[in-house]
Specification:
This protein is α+β, with helices and mostly antiparallel strands and 973 residues long. It has a domain of 155 residues. Helix content is 37%, strand content 15%. The chain is built from 28 helices and 29 strands. Strands 3, 4, 5, 8, 9, 12, 15, 16, 19 and 20 form a 10-stranded mixed beta sheet that branches. A 3-stranded antiparallel beta sheet has the order 21-22-23. β19, α22 and β20 form a beta-alpha-beta unit. α25 packs antiparallel against α26. 53% of the residues are buried.
Length: 973
């Protein structure tokens, strides 16, 4: 594999053309684009066709603190409360309480849609003023009806900044000089500041095995990665509620590849040691274990060639070569090197793999230079020093009244969105001259989609099936073919991108490869051959290829599949990007503690599609609500179970999508994407390093450009033990035995049962939102608690005095025979500060010190069937028995919460639809009382970091994370 050498940024396209073959000239018509109304009605503004209402947008933290609130916000009634909270808190501009603050979704959409349209008018994109107004209304309609959303930087900056940063994805170069290495740190910092992510291949930096020009040994790229990582960790993207997103890559033939492969895993082991020594195991904790190690703010990927992968297959050797002079430095067994990569990924999820040969085989601009790197989530892959603005289409909104995919409206939406993204290119700002120059010269775009998993389930197609993959491939083919056709149409009026003449041959070759791949879809599933969807996909690629031959293309790239984190919430998507749903039943944490149930909204549609009658559907959904799994539901046929398989296995079930099911779905979509796919292949906790190596090998064989895996539970975000815990473990505590018969009469002096002078005890250290303390319990001979001591503050303080008095009263109660069960039931779930996340995996969230103490006592001294009511099950906190159900849909503070909503409809006429619609708006659908064994999705991703904004545990979104509570992301979309 050729070592990645950065192209000389001082070399202009003009100088390259001198040595290139003669290129033909293109004469644009200059007539502009015409648009027809597909979604809107002439003479009627899109805003006038929807119902609006006033709402309060609010977000709470894990500790019950109000993180954000804005009242009297005007929102379409069709938008969920979650979409309202996310959009208002993330995208509304202006200081809260000021006249400049946006107060309506109308203002937000107008700010972006009108600005883009006005820029299009200025730059001559439209054939007439009438066409511009049609475009304005149609674009407004798409966003208003949640059919499309631009990437977050557009909503952050367009209409606010004169030259707004509109791209989410950047690839930066670095060369083997100290000036360039430090300049990269500055460039990355500015990108994070404005809400974007960046990736860099550091293979151009000489290795630690090579000499410096002035003598001495070079530091090597891994050492500089520590500095880059530190900057990324302290910069919050744009001050706009997004953490820095970053990717680091190294070529497989770089001499420091072994150090790179192990770098993150070795740091992970340090975190484990710190946790065992008593350091906090949470993320984003100042002075905690993960705050004290390197490489936690970037994704790592190894860049491999076909030659290396074949050496792995055949058991050959592999050589690394010096960056400066190309000499052989080391020789490895290829399989051993792959085993090291897989072992590191088994430990911490990194490094992922990028398949360099495949990437460059599909490169539209190979005459300019090779592709060396990607953005943070690996979906945007293009030339160094380039940028890509993203947008995503909500697939579930492109269905007709019969549930069939509406090809015509989808094509119209693709054309509108690509045009809007194209208009952004020349009017946006860029962080460096090199990125600005390449953006104007190549104009890469990244259109994608979300809600594929929901769409497949609604159609009754299993995600992991030939039919599901064929359907997904056809949709992806239609999107990309239509996007390139529109790009060629724009090129006919304005001319192709500047570097197209130089790259005409490779680009037309890649377009032809895309077109040929369409025929493979029907080979996989013959029934797809005659569908309107596949016919339209073929026609779109025919038009794209023919128009490109005549006019060229305005954009070097047009499609990727991004994680769609925050904008997925904006569009009320059930699933993001190419992902299936995480689980049919999910739990969302309530402010201050507790959870409510969210049900996959597409289950009812799937059951209808599969032909179940109303009564059967209701019985299946009732079973799902009760058991958290659809397996075993009455009337559900065995052959239909795969339709409802999700990413994770439910606690009461056995089914989930196998890792290779995810890989095969990616392979179905990849031939129809300019870039790649942001997706993490989740692997079960029991997966081995060999399983990961097999996954990496199969992904290469199937033609993927990149892949990342994550083994559930590989990070130790919970403390393993503390010194005090170890002492406590030596005390054998039996389950409480019944008190001796014939207790004395209450109130008599004989009723007190004193402890012996020498008694066993157990001491427990706890931490609640950073407030530490100790609990010591003295026990009778049979292991029952008889006295309680609590230490939380300095002697003589108010807190110390209150705790002493409280502990004394509890001790007396225990010695006078008050059942511990009664005390636990009375005092648990008492709410006051401090409250928050604890270091106890069985009590993940405490509403107060009193709540924690008594739930801990329940864990240690109550019978199993009793204590389970008060503990976190699978890291999911249980509700207190009898605690009322809560409606967490945001409402003005002076209004009462709405009444609880039953999971089962009262009649078969309304069926399940009301309950599912209520779940979408955040209403509680269950009371988690005794016997509930549901597993939260967070159980399966319990080692994900907490959100930097609200503290909620995040979940994976593509190769990054998103917050289900406030919509923040750690990704680039």
């Amino acid at each position: 594999m050729t070592t990645s050498i950065e192209p000389n940024v001082s070399e202009t396209p003009a100088t390259k053309k001198k040595s290139a073959k003669k290129v033909r000239e293109f004469k644009p018509s200059g007539k502009g684009l015409s648009f027809k109304r597909v979604f809107t009605t002439e003479g009627v503004h899109p805003y006038d066709e929807v119902e609006w209402e006033q709402r309060t947008a609010s977000i709470g933290s894990e500790t019950g603190k109000l993180v954000f609130e804005q009242r009297d916000v005007e929102v379409p009634t069709s938008w969920s409360q979650m979409a309202t909270n996310v959009v208002v808190s993330k995208y509304f501009r202006g200081q809260l309480g000021s006249k400049e603050r946006e107060t309506s979704i109308r203002q937000l959409i107008d700010r972006v849609a009108n600005t883009i349209t006005d820029w299009g008018i200025k730059d001559g994109y439209f054939a007439s003023p009438e066409d511009a107004e049609v475009f304005r209304h149609e674009l407004t309609y798409l966003v208003l009806h949640q059919k499309m959303a631009f990437n977050s930087p557009v909503w952050f900056n367009v209409g606010v900044e004169e030259r707004p940063q509109a791209s989410a994805c950047f690839i930066n170069s670095v060369s083997d000089t100290m000036e360039s290495i430090l300049e990269l740190a500055k460039t990355e910092g500015m990108l994070f500041k404005w809400g974007s992510g960046t990736g860099s291949n550091l293979s151009t930096i000489r290795s630690s095995r090579e000499q410096l020009r002035g003598g001495g040994t070079a530091s090597g790229p891994v050492s500089f990665m520590k500095g880059y990582d530190a900057f990324a960790g302290v910069i919050k993207s744009g001050g706009k509620t997004r953490r820095a997103a970053k990717m680091v890559m190294l070529d497989i033939d770089h001499p420091d590849i072994e150090e790179f492969v192990h770098s993150k895993a070795d740091e992970e082991k340090k975190a484990w040691a710190l946790i065992e020594a008593g350091y906090d195991g949470g993320f984003n904790v100042v002075g905690g274990a993960y705050d004290s190690i390197f490489f936690q703010n970037a994704n790592h990927s190894v860049r491999v060639s076909d030659a290396f992968m074949k050496a792995v297959e055949e058991g050959g050797t592999w050589q690394t070569r010096a960056v400066v002079d190309g000499r052989v430095v080391d020789e490895y067994e290829a399989r051993k090197l792959m085993a090291d990569i897989a072992e590191a990924a088994w430990i911490c999820g990194d490094p992922g793999m990028q398949y360099d040969t495949t990437i460059n085989d599909w490169h539209t601009c190979s005459n300019t230079d090779r592709i060396y790197g990607s953005n943070p989530c690996s979906e945007y892959m293009f030339l160094n020093d380039s940028a890509c603005n993203l947008a995503s289409l909500n697939l579930m909104t492109y269905r007709d009244s019969d549930g069939e995919f509406d090809v015509a409206s989808f094509q119209a939406a693709v054309a509108l969105t690509i045009t809007a993204q194209e208009i952004l290119v020349d009017n946006a700002g860029y962080p460096t001259p090199a990125i600005e120059k390449n953006s104007h010269a190549f104009r890469p775009l990244g259109l994608g989609y979300a809600n594929l998993g929901a769409l497949l389930m609604a159609r009754g197609l299993p995600y992991d099936s030939t039919e599901g993959r064929a359907y997904a491939g056809a949709i992806t083919a239609l999107m990309c073919g239509e996007a390139y056709a529109q790009s060629a149409k724009v090129a006919a009026t304005t001319g192709p991108f500047v570097e197209y003449p130089l790259n005409e041959e490779p680009m037309l070759g890649v377009i032809a490869k895309h077109r040929a791949a369409v025929e493979n879809i029907s080979d996989e599933w013959a029934e797809m051959a005659d569908t309107a969807l596949l016919k339209a996909a073929r026609q779109s690629w025919d038009r794209a290829l023919e128009a490109g031959k005549d006019h060229g293309y305005r954009n070097s790239q047009v499609t990727v599949l991004a994680p769609t984190g925050t904008i997925g919430f904006m569009m009320d998507c059930d699933t993001t990007g190419i992902e299936p749903d995480i689980a049919l039943i999910k739990y969302k944490k309530l402010v201050g503690g507790g959870y409510f149930k969210i049900v996959n909204q597409t289950v009812p549609e799937a059951l209808i599609q599969l032909g179940y009658e109303a009564r059967e559907r209701q019985a299946i959904i009732d079973y799902l609500m009760e058991h958290d799994t659809i397996e075993g539901a009455p009337a559900l046929k065995e052959e239909h179970l795969p339709v409802f398989d999700c990413a994770f296995t439910p606690a009461n079930g056995t089914r989930s999508i196998a890792p290779m099911g995810h890989v095969r779905m990616m392979a179905a979509a990849q031939p129809f994407l300019s870039g790649a796919i942001s997706k993490t292949v989740n692997m079960p906790h029991e997966a081995t390093a060999e399983d990961i190596a097999d996954c990496y090998l199969e992904a290469w064989k199937l033609g993927l450009k990149a892949i990342a895996i994550y083994r559930d539970g590989c990070k130790r975000t919970q403390p393993l033990s503390t010194s005090l815990d170890k002492k406590a473990e030596k005390v054998e505590v039996s389950q409480p035995a019944p008190l001796a018969a014939a207790q004395p009469v209450w109130g008599s002096t004989e009723s007190r049962r004193r402890l012996p002078d020498e008694r066993p005890s157990i001491t427990h250290k706890f931490s609640i939102a950073g407030h530490e303390g100790y609990i010591t319990v003295g026990m009778y001979e049979n292991g029952q608690p008889g006295e309680l001591f609590i230490v939380m503050s300095k002697e003589g303080s108010v807190v110390s005095g209150l705790m002493d008095s409280f502990a004394t009263s509890i001790s007396l109660g225990l010695q006078y025979g008050v059942p511990l069960q009664v005390m636990v039931d009375k005092f648990s779930h008492t709410r006051f500060e401090p409250s928050g996340i604890t270091t106890n995996p069985k009590i993940r969230f405490a509403k107060s010190v009193t709540d924690y103490i008594f739930r801990w006592l329940a864990d240690k001294f109550l019978q199993e069937e009793e204590r389970d009511l008060y503990l976190t099950k699978n890291t999911t906190e249980a509700w207190r028995p009898g605690e009322p159900q809560v409606n967490v849909a945001a409402a003005p503070a002076d209004e009462e919460p709405e009444e609880e909503v039953s999971a089962a409809a009262e009649s078969s006429d309304v069926e399940e639809s009301e309950g599912f619609a209520s779940a979408r708006d955040g209403q509680v659908l269950f009371d988690a009382t005794a016997g509930n064994t549901g597993t939260s999705v967070y159980t399966l991703q319990a080692d994900a970091p907490p959100c930097s904004e609200c503290g909620s545990i995040m979940v994976r979104s593509g190769a990054c994370y998103k917050c289900q509570n406030c919509g923040s992301t750690s990704g680039c979309s």
